[in-house]
Specification:
This protein folds into 2 domains: about 60 residues, no CATH class; about 190 residues, Rossmann fold (3-Layer(aba) Sandwich), CATH 3.40.50. It is about 45% helix and about 20% strand. Strand 7, helix 10 and strand 8 form a beta-alpha-beta unit. It is globular, with a radius of gyration of 20 Å.
Length: about 270
C-alpha cells in the first residue's frame, strides 16, 4: 500500500497520506474488484495507462453518501438549538450576514438543507438578514453536480412536504432547488488538509468525514475549523465522531446527542 501511495504522490500529485490506511485499502480493493485487476502492481500499471482512474479512485476514497435532511432529528436540533441563537447574535452585530460552511459537502444536499432550515426561520419570523452557505468538497465532479442543483425524485424522500413545495421545482423526472435557495449557496473545491478558505463563520458542519482520518489529522482539521469560526460559533460533527484529545480545549458541548459544539475562544496570555 505504501508503494501505491508513493506512486500517486509522485506521478499524480495526489496525497492520500492523511487518510487511514485501512480505509484506503478497502477502497483500492473495491476499485480493483470492479476493474477485475489481480494485484497492486497491475493496478499501478492500469493507473499509469488510464489517468482518469485517479478521479474514480478519489471519488471512491472520499465516498459520497448523502441525502437531504439526513438524520431528520439533527436538522430539528439545528433549527431548535442553533439557528435562533445565531440569528439573535446577528441582530445585535454589525454584520447582517449569517455564514455557514458545509465541509465535505459531497453533491450538495447537506449545504442546501442547511440553507433551507435557516431561510425557513428567517422567513417565518420576518427577519431581514442575509445568508451565505459555503459547500466544499475535494471532488470537482461532486461540486459541479451540486451547483446544478438538480436531483432525482428519489432524493425527495427525506424532504418535508412543505419544504419540497417552497424550495424545489419539478424539472423533467427530477427536481431543481429554487433560485432563492440556490443563490445563498456557493460550492467550491477544497481539501480539508489545507487552510480554511473562510473566516468569521457562525456554523461549521462536517459530518461523517473525520472518521476517515487518523486522530492527529482530525485534530489538525478541527484546529482549522476553530480558527475559521467566529467567537461563539458552532461546530457540528457526525454522530460517530467526537472532539477529543487536545481539540477538547477548543470546543464545548452544546448538544451531546447530536454532536454540536460551541467554539471556546482562546485567549493569549
Amino acid at each position: 500500500m505504501g508503494e501505491l501511495l508513493a506512486h500517486l504522490q509522485t506521478h499524480f500529485g495526489m496525497d492520500l497520506s492523511n487518510y487511514r490506511v485501512s480505509c484506503i485499502r478497502r477502497r483500492v480493493n473495491l476499485r480493483m474488484s470492479i476493474l477485475k485487476v489481480a494485484g497492486l502492481d497491475e493496478y499501478l500499471a492500469y493507473l499509469t495507462a488510464n489517468p482518469r482512474e485517479i478521479e474514480q479512485l478519489l471519488d471512491t476514497v472520499t465516498i459520497h453518501v448523502t441525502e437531504f435532511f439526513r438524520d431528520a432529528a439533527v436538522y430539528e436540533a439545528v433549527a431548535r438549538n442553533l439557528v435562533p441563537e445565531i440569528v439573535s447574535r446577528k441582530l445585535h452585530s454589525p454584520s447582517r450576514t449569517i455564514r455557514v460552511w458545509s465541509a465535505g459537502c459531497s453533491t450538495g444536499e447537506e449545504a442546501y438543507s442547511l440553507a433551507m432550515v435557516i431561510l425557513g426561520h428567517l422567513r417565518a419570523n420576518r427577519i431581514d438578514l442575509e445568508l451565505e452557505v459555503y459547500g466544499t468538497d475535494v471532488s470537482k465532479e461532486a461540486c459541479a453536480f451540486a451547483r446544478e442543483g438538480i436531483y432525482e425524485a428519489r432524493k425527495m424522500e427525506g424532504v418535508p412536504e412543505d419544504v419540497r413545495r417552497k424550495c424545489f421545482a419539478a424539472e423533467g423526472s427530477g427536481y431543481r432547488v429554487v433560485p432563492d435557495v440556490r443563490r445563498c449557496v456557493r460550492f467550491s473545491v477544497h481539501d480539508l488538509f489545507s487552510s480554511a478558505p473562510f473566516s468569521m463563520l457562525d456554523l461549521v458542519v462536517c459530518r461523517n468525514v473525520l472518521i476517515h482520518f487518523d486522530q492527529a489529522v482530525r485534530n489538525d482539521v478541527l484546529e482549522r475549523f476553530h480558527a475559521a469560526l467566529d467567537d461563539q460559533g458552532f461546530l457540528m460533527l457526525g454522530k460517530s465522531e467526537a472532539v477529543i484529545g487536545s481539540a477538547a480545549a477548543w470546543f464545548a458541548f452544546v448538544d451531546i446527542r447530536n454532536k454540536m459544539y460551541r467554539k471556546i475562544a482562546l485567549r493569549s496570555s
